[in-house]
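[scheduler] slot 2 assigned
[scheduler] job type: sequence-to-structure, two independent chains
[scheduler] chain ordering preserved from manifest
[runner] begin chain α
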Amino acid sequence: MSSITKQQPVTREELLRRAKEIGELAEKYALQTDEERRLPEEVTQKLKESNFHLLHRPKAYGGQDLDFETFGDIIRTVAYHSVSAAWATYFVIIHETWPSFIPKDARDTLFNSNELMADVFAPVGKVEDADDGKGYLVSGQWNFCSGVLWSDWIALGAFHTMKDGDKPELSLFIVRKEDVEVIDNWDTMGLRGTGSNAVKLDKNYVAPEYVFPLSRVVEGATAPDGNYEEDYLLFNVPYIAYFLSGFSQILVGGLKRLVDEFVERTENRVRVYNNNSQEKDNSSSQRTLGEIKMEYNALEKIADDYLARMQGYAEKGVRVLEEEERQELFAMRGYVAKHAPLIATRLLTVLGGNALYRESGAERFVRDLIAVSCHPTHLYEDAMVGYGKTIVGQDGHPMW
């Protein structure tokens, strides 16, 4: 098995150029993607060729400690053209980080394979101790396995008392796609291109070195066999806060496309039922423009601040957050997740009937942004309850 050749850092400009190429290519196939419920091979191949999956790996495995601002801008750039492709781009980056927290032999196998990875954090699996006294037998069905169609490794969540533990904890059990059943059930309102089908296992054996100990990482654990790279970016940030940071970037990037289209259409629209008046001269439209831009700017600033905090954590080596700050980040994600699709829906209705045609793309962006907002890691009500509880000194949400 060949080892990964260390890469020269790729410039921000080049990374954003690659992101734009992926986004534009995905947009070219947007209608086909909606029909087939997956990104076309041309798009996933372009994503692989971008080497984005290397960016947040340890440097020993080809990574480059990509700064969080550029990380966010990559995702936003793709989302401006295709929300589904941005989802895939975000996931190929973050899914190449959890092997850093497993033993070296397994870590080498995953990284050196240079194959893409998928996961489902939802702890819906059933785990039994294997008869060999070492490994585990994993069973269950996990929906929402984004990227499974173009990935070769899958990490699946379950609660289990590990052999070196004394209570149930959330871990991800890593398997080969060829060893699982992929269930073709991804037929949804939005994010259709992500191909997030279900996967099913029935007592699949997982060796102990192929278990990502998520609960322990949340509590500050790094590699179980020592810090082989002490300055590794993701050993020096709160991991879950990082792992969830891209959803807001997807929402902001996709919403920006709708806002820009709204501005352009307002400038060029003629209201035939209103004496052929110019829409841009209508005070009501001018007010709507002002409101929409301010609302978008507010969400963009929240998303910017989230990534700036991540950069600050990395510089200070903060792996575990105080409870109130952890829940504030949850609330920031929840706020963007609630308001981005609300703004998008308003834009669609104001744009008028022509925006309803699938070829226009506007209705697809609205559907996709609504779908992004449904992810459990940023549900608005949960986020605000969790944040509010910590403000008065109580514990927040147990996971997010």
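[runner] end chain α
[runner] begin chain β
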Amino acid sequence: MSVSGKSVLKRLDWFSVLIYIALVFIGWINIYSSTFTDDNPSIFNFSSLHGKQLFFIGTSALSIIIILALEANFYERFSSLFYIISIVLLLGLFIFGKTIAGATSWYDLGFFNLQPSEFAKVATALALAKYLSDIQTDIKRQKDQMIAILIILIPAFLIIPQPDPGSALVFFALIFVIFREGLPLYYLGIGFMVILIFILTLMFGTIWVAIILGLLLALFLLLKKPSFKVPIIPVALIYVAIVLFSLSVNFVFNSVFEQRHRDRFSLWLRLEKDPKKLEEIRKDIGYNTYQSEKAIESGGLSGKGFLEGTRTKGDFVPEQHTDYIFSTVGEEWGFMGTATVVILFTTLLLRLVYLSERQKNDFSRMYGYGVISILFVHYFINIGMVTGVLPTIGIPLPFFSYGGSGLLFFTALLFIFLKLDANRLNELT
């Protein structure tokens, strides 16, 4: 290895690397357990799912070598090109895409199914960091705010029709990068208000939303100081806009959402009042989550032991090696195992926050927060989904779930930032 290569390895944040290795290893152990059969016990059987994942791990290791070998400024220089390629690949799915489990999200390459939305996450994080770090960009200007948000929205809106709303949701997490760089907080307030009104309308209806909002507004006007002047017309327009949005919720829910999405919201928010109908939904659309919860509960404190999970062996949890891999950890390794995984992920995220904050280069810092946003949303939603706290969306657990595209591009996402961080240390010496 060259002198520069040795310098990169010396300055690499090995604490983050070790957590990455631990997560990949633990993930593979649980993939092996969830796909193990007595007829297929070999670790190196590459026709099996755990064998394929081992191959993907090797491919990801090779990608790490390539990422670290390239110059750090390569990623900033070509970030716009990566973004354009990702958009072209997403558009191509409408013509050449392969449909798996009802979603046209893959290209069939014969030996490998490529999911371009995973590459788009890396490319969008790079492109957003490039735009925000440009000397001509001022995030205080509304025009620049709109362009930054548009960079996020374009790939998200191309992914939604696949349909893959889970992956699309991840892109919206990148808005937190813009907030970190100075986007006014009222945008965040508007976003939370939209979500809150949407949920409250589904639960109680538009009439009650209008009444509650009117009462809160009246209470505010009664309790405010006489010297505080309230602009009546703008407040009235905001009230009308909220009520109109609430009226649109039922149309979106009934006419835009698919039945499976409506059922998931009905289950999560307990919208269905008929106990029999609710039980039917739980056994149908909520079956995966129900079985996942039972598998985790059965693990107790220390679990049933490696390869001893009865629900795992009985295939009670569908797709357990992918989105529901965390349930295998819960059944076979118990609370101690799930706590270990949660601690590893949390520690990695906190470490990445620390590394991002110490960056002197704006592009590196902004990209670092893009990495944090993407990993956090995947981690938070996946574990919330598997444990029944959040509705089923269908996104993998980073570095953990089975899948070549996911592992490869999550690895690239992380190690591009670690390369940028190593370069920062290089520039200081």
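[runner] end chain β
[qc] chain β: The beta strands are 98-100, 103-108, 113-114.
[scheduler] slot 2 released
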